[in-house]
Amino acid sequence: MGNLPNCPKCNSEYTYEDGSIFVCPECAHEWGVQAENENNEDINVIKDANGNVLQDGDSVTIIKDLKVKGASSSIKIGTKVKNIRLVPDASDGHNIDCKIDGFGAMSLKSEFVKKI
Description:
Elements (H helix, E strand, L loop, with lengths): L15 E3 L2 E3 L6 E3 H9 L18 E3 L17 E2 L3 E2 L9 E5 L3 E5 L4 E3 L1
Antiparallel strand pairs: 1-2, 2-3, 4-5, 4-9, 6-7, 7-8
């Protein structure tokens, strides 16, 4: 069969090559050979909701009220979070570790924050 990449959308191993693109038969996602190379280069880049690249130690602001399991209140929009730590290989999508006043240690998704 060869050395074909897994689908970047659903991680299926049953991909096939159709001309200059790869196709996933399970989710019908199509991507090009160049896109595969670009994805490998950008795999460790974490961006905020506006597309700004985040780095360890950055300060961010919450852009949406976030409910917290086990807590009686939620994290309000506009809450500032200082000194974040990035977790690029988080499997559940929570790729920011931080401490939030009143809540303690927390993991956040980068799609719900914007860089200050």
